């Protein structure tokens, strides 16, 4: 599995329920690091944030396509200040 596949998939799925979301993905194979940029998700509790992403990744985790995921969440302002 490639990072661009994960990025496209997650942005598509998350944008169905969020007004604005950007996902930056690093890694390859079955280990990925996600930077999720969304003002809406940042407003949620840390557990709810992760649940909203894992809900879409669970099929790939279950079949072994993805083994490890690290997530960081940023508001759009915090992301802009970081880069």
UniProtKB/TrEMBL annotation:
Record field: transmembrane: none
Domain of life of the native organism: Bacteria
InterPro entries on file: BolA (IPR002634), BolA-like_sf (IPR036065), BolA/IbaG_stress_morph_reg (IPR050961)
Listed Gene3D superfamilies: BolA-like
One Pfam family here: BolA
Family affiliation: Belongs to the BolA/IbaG family.
Full protein name: BolA family transcriptional regulator
């Amino acid at each position: 599995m490639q990072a661009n596949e994960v990025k496209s998939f997650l942005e598509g799925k998350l944008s169905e329920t969020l007004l604005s979301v950007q996902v930056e993905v690093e890694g390859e194979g079955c280990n990925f690091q996600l930077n999720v940029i969304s003002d809406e998700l940042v407003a949620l509790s840390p557990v709810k944030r992760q649940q909203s992403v894992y809900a879409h990744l669970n099929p790939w985790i279950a079949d072994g396509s993805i083994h490890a995921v690290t997530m960081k969440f940023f508001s759009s302002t915090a992301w802009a200040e970081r880069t």
